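User: Hello! I'm new to structural biology and keep hearing that structure can be predicted from sequence alone. Could you demonstrate with Transcriptional regulator of acetoin/glycerol metabolism? Please show me the input and the output so I can see what each looks like.

Assistant: Of course. The first part below is the input, the amino acid sequence of Transcriptional regulator of acetoin/glycerol metabolism. The second part is the output, the predicted structure written as tokens.
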Amino acid sequence: MPPMTLSPRSSADRLRAARRQWLDGGELGDDLIAPGLLASWQRSRQHGLLPDGRAPGSPHASAAQLARALAQRHTLVSHARPVMAFLNDQIRDSDSIVVLADPQGMLLHALGDLGFADRAARVALRPGAIWSEQWRGTNAIGTALADGATVVVHGAEHYLERNAFLTCAAAPIADPAGQLLGVLDISGDRRAHHRHTLGLVRSGARMIEHQLFEDRHAAGLQLRLHGQVEGLGTVTEGLLALSEDGWITGANTAALELLGLPRSAIGALTIERVLDLDMAALLAAARPGLNGTPRELRRVDGSWLWGRLDVGRTVRVGPSALAAPRAQDIAATPIPPRVAAPVDALAALDRGDAAMQAAIERARRVLDKPIALLLQGESGVGKEVFARAVHRSGPRADRPFIAVNCAALPETLIEAELFGYRPGAYTGASRDGAPGRIREAHGGTLFLDEIGDMPLSMQARLLRVLQERQVVPLGGGKPVDVDFRLVCATHRKLRHEVEAGRFREDLYYRVNGLSLTLPSLRDRADLSALVEAMLRELEPGRTLALSADVARDFATCRWPGNLRQLVNVLRTACALLDDHGQVIERAHLPEDVLEELLAQAVPVDPASDPATDPSTDLRQQAERCIGEALRSCAGNMSEAARRLGISRNTLYRKLKERGA
Ligand SMILES: Nc1ncnc2c1ncn2[C@@H]1O[C@H](COP(=O)(O)OP(=O)(O)OP(=O)(O)O)[C@@H](O)[C@H]1O
């Protein structure tokens, strides 16, 4: 999508003339300001806004609403933060701030020049404020959302006069399925306007989209595209996610631009319609977990570009992939009987822990039976990963896996999200209506995460769907038959929720055909095998191991975040490791993690023998490390702290604790 510059011809004089005419209530001549700006001003007027701001004030989210929005968008926010910090470095001292907004225009996060941030806050450019066109008229965030395109709004182009001191550039961020997730914006003092800002903000949005894509599709088939072979594997590349039978199931903006496709192509086209390649032959030659070889690919218009097919671990390759049914055939055929695979996604979760093996074995017995699975266990033990493995190992593996997080959705949205809605069913609903996640799961698996957090009113509706196997969309209409395997998960004890009256007993029995509790990491006997597997996955092609110290720290840690925490710690350690390093030492653990590991080490049981107690051992080791570091740095606290990978304050605290 080319960036939309609202006023290519709007010199200051023309703009002033245009505003005067506009304020007088007249219609503007076509050539006075750019059509995009005129359209946005017209929308602003239709929203009942007056340029001088004599209109009802715009809403501001409460702290609770902001917290909910942040939780709901945590994947976006966590990928956006480092990019925003990077952009902020580029615009330092330029009277500007970097802002992230959600699809409703609510500001989620802002950082930047403090002096300017103060002034920006006075016009509510701060988290919680809503910058949709509906409330603020033409502005980069709201207009980028309205147009779904990159935009610059400079000075008096802002609809409201009070925002005329700003210059803003914004770029939409879309998820790999083409859904608008939010907007990245750089806003600054009008006088500090720089033409490169638009490029910066657009690059930032691309970087975030790239990360979101890698996150979602790393285990599947990814086709990387670029005009130059050296561009493959960089953040500037185009990315397509493909199903094994060649359907485009995801794309980043760069890929859509390279191929000249609209977002609606996602899920609607096979790759063979846009590139001259033989998917089946490529797959037959591929190896799971390996990157392909770059090759030149011909577009339908005859031009060439470079492509590389990377095959994730979960992809079926070899001759069987050649026979994979095409998507249109799948939709028309009944669900095939399961052919037991000797090594499947469930088997891949078995690293030797007995409780995990039992859960896998029990799940396997009901794979082809219509029995609802309820996965319980602490947060981060891998319930969603397990649910996906159940799906991929069962007879519905080729059909959709639809995950809904019942805790992340506000109560007002969950109903529409799950059950769908008819056009115009409620204020703010899309004009076309939506089928809802339950219908999208037809033929496949519906995964309801955090089912224990589902509001009671919604529980009644879900129960009806499960009993009748039919969905009635919001706003009425004919019931639609649905057929899906149900897998639910919760970190709560669902039985307790029933006893406390927060979860319906009849629904409890419906979702609990077979309950499996996944073990917490601290109780698993396969920690080292897990670490090994995770390191292999994080750094394919390298042989990494933990030092004896770190292995001991890990073994005694309580791991409150379970596998999620472990994988994050390892990811950071890998990033801190030298290019040729092979052993992860304490110095490679971020200081907060090291502190956490030391603080969380299993407490000393007074009855246990201090000589063999691992935590005593750990504390002694920590003290020994501190002593050695101080000696080798001749008492230089800053240097010792750096070598230990902890802050100076932490080092002082630890010295005080041991009475030094
Ligand atoms: N078997 C596994 N091997 C490697 N990593 C895993 C495994 N299981 C889970 N993980 C890691 O842990 C993360 C959390 O897993 P998952 O989302 O399935 O946990 P969860 O129990 O559903 O968490 P929550 O209750 O918070 O939703 C995953 O994103 C993945 O990084």
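User: So the tokens describe the shape?

Assistant: Right, they're a compact way of writing down the 3D structure. Reading them back into a model, for example: The first strand starts at residue 4 and ends at 5.
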